[in-house]
Amino acid sequence: MFDIGKLGNRFTHNPKNVSQLPVRSDIANIIWCHQHLRFKEGIYKVPHGSPDLLVIERNARAIIAVTDSWTTSPSVTVATGFAQGTVLKDHSGAFSGTRTVGAGGMVEVTAASCDGTAGNGRRCYAIWGPESVPGYTKTPRSTTQEWEMSDDLGDSHPLSLQQGGRLPRNSVETRTAGRIFVEAGRPVSYLVYLSDHLNGVTIELYKDNVLLHTASNKLDFGGSYTPDYTGWMTIKARNDDVSSPGQTVWLVMTYRPPADVVTSQYDTKSPPGGGDWDLYKRILANRKL
Fold first, then answer.
1. Is the terminal CB of the chain with fewer CB neighbours within 10 Å at N or C?
2. CA 237 to CA 6: how far, in whole Å?
């Protein structure tokens, strides 16, 4: 989606600055078509296949024509699930005008050549769908994430998210399981499963470095917490006792994030320091010294 190598700033770009994140137009267009033409509501069909042209249909939702021809934009007439009289247009913008579905659902579709000479610079594809799109509504939905806190899944590299890892022996040092994006007023529920039911574990929920909620038990347990803010929540776990032999812990979080988020308003901090890109710049500066 983002061509972060284009400006030579793959490792130094600021993800909050959209000017440093050039978008691959074709990928953005395909995502838009997938959403607004509601691909998932149509069953998958392949009305045509030949050496230089593949036609895929999401039944009565969209017709995707793909080619590997460099200078030629091949066309074919196929039978589709669209009703006779349906007016189609190319939502990739490679071709102007419309095409009307004939008797038996027959309609001609064309794929853009790969040399970039088609409209909008499209290469290799076109997406034909109803002239008036069904549209796309962003709907919030519940999300469940699970983390297995085991050493083979942990990562302590300074440029990583520094998440995971088995709870250490003879220590109450916390381990970060992961982070979730929560919405104010929406409950966050959790389930905690322990590999050792003789030694207790505490989980902690944080907003940045502020402890919001804590719970502990020697047995598998669960609970919930309702945040009063919208943003990132960090989930951590630790042994209850310094003499604990340590153990593997499984954490399951269920929450409902907002339907729409303006990401530039929220930092992506790696606990406990600043943003990932700031950390990388500091490491580079130290190496130069």
1. C
2. 40
d(CA 33, CA 39) in angstroms, rounded, equals 8
- Quote the CA–CA distance of 183 and 227 in Å, as a whole number: 7
Superfamily for domain range 18-130: Golgi alpha-mannosidase II (2.60.40.1180)
DSSP label of 272: T
| CA neighbor of 228 nearest in space, from 259, 268, 188 | 188
Where do we find the tokens 């944080």? 206
pLDDT in tens, 216-234: 999 999 999 999 999 999 9
Task: Write out pLDDT tens, residues 93-105.
Answer: 999 999 999 999 9
Per residue in 50-66, pLDDT tens? Answer: 999 999 999 999 999 99
User: Where are the chain's structural domains?
Assistant: 18-130, 143-280
Give the right CATH number for 143-280 from 2.70.98.10, 2.170.150.20, 1.10.3720.10, 2.60.120.380.
Answer: 2.60.120.380
In order of 169, 176, 270, the CA distances from 233 in angstroms are 26, 11, 12
